[in-house]
Amino acid sequence: MNEIILLKLGEVVLKGLNRRSFEQKLVGNVRRRLLGLGEFQVSCMQSTIYVEPLSEDADMDAAFAAMQDVFGVVKISRAAACEKNADAIAGLAIDYLKDDMLRAKSFKVESKRSDKRFPMTSIQLSQSVGSALSDAYPDCVVDVHDPELIVNVEVRDLAAYVHAAPVDGAGGMPVGSNGTAVSLLSGGIDSPVSTWMIAKRGVRQIPVHFFSFPYTSQQAKEKVIELGRLLTPWCGDMILEVVPFTHIQEEIRDKCPEEFFTLIMRRFMMRIAEAIALQTGAKAIVTGENLGQVASQTMEAMAVTQAVTELPVLQPLVGMDKEEIVRLARKIGTFDTSILPYEDCCTVFTPRHPKTHPKLQEVEQAEAALDVESLVSEALEGREKIRL
Ligand code: ATP
Ligand code: MG
User: Fold this and answer.
1) Given CB 3.0 to 4.6 Å as the disulfide criterion, which of 54, 58, 128, 147 pairs with 108?
2) Which ligand does the CA of 317 lie closest to?
3) CA dist list (Å): 167 to 5, 7, 101, 226, 229
């Protein structure tokens, strides 16, 4: 049987003039996601993307699953195709939707006709397919008001398609359609989720990880690489930047008052992230901060941290409860890796009594003992890029 996958576009459809380029981004992302699953043809017509297998070995199950992680798609259906005449369509519906028709107690047919030369109206076509299905499955009755099953028939330019209940797509916007940001990726639960949420809004990201070897282990780095890899189905290919952070942390420990350790460290993260953004054309910094979760996440602490950058700092988790974040982490598949017990640089040299309501001036004073500029350039020069 001639099967294809239909992807219905989400917000992309609303974007008027930008629509073309959004669709192209999405088609590119879909193609990339299908690599390794066999040969497919991907095309876009009338706000629907068609994924057609071209070879015998094209893995339709894997492709159908993969399409569920592509941002910008709201609904996904697996459909069967046939020639454009009412008998062929009815025959195909009887065959292809057998399991659905046997399971459901009621159904209705909804037809769409974008090929206006087709000799029946949509209503006539629905009636004709509906009565054929009724005859074939007498236990499933027609109910046009509240059917359990909706049978979709679409007559398009090249063929007619039959499909039943679509599944939900990932929603959001195609990655790459909304610019680039630098995303601070720790090994924790939160930052993979914040990266995912910003990818959902169509932003390509450059994950940056601060690495404090030997205070944090090689395994801690491997864990972050793995988290990055787990995100690529959603975020697309990414290049992880691993920034050596040890010297900066030791300098802070040796020269600054303990209560400001974390804040000063976070200001360095922001400066380095901004520098990487400038080099890569990124226009924002993404973090997994969450209001009130830890001492460095009070409003005053965030103000002090963000004072060193002019870029917008996007914190998509800011108003969420931990439980909601954990639920998302499980859904996107990063949770089990995030909870592996390796130290993060934030837990090295943690102050016993961190300042929760810091004033910018006192932090700036504490920081004056450091040669900020040369520490930042040293870290930037020492960074390692890892293709995920
Ligand atoms: P997470 O679970 O993401 O680690 P968290 O609740 O532990 O978050 P913090 O440790 O205060 O919070 O870190 C806040 C944010 O700062 C993180 O969400 C992340 O975006 C960034 N961050 C923290 N540590 C690192 C690191 N080693 N490398 C890169 N970014 C980091
Ligand atoms: Mg953390």
Assistant:
1) 147
2) 1
3) 11, 10, 17, 28, 25
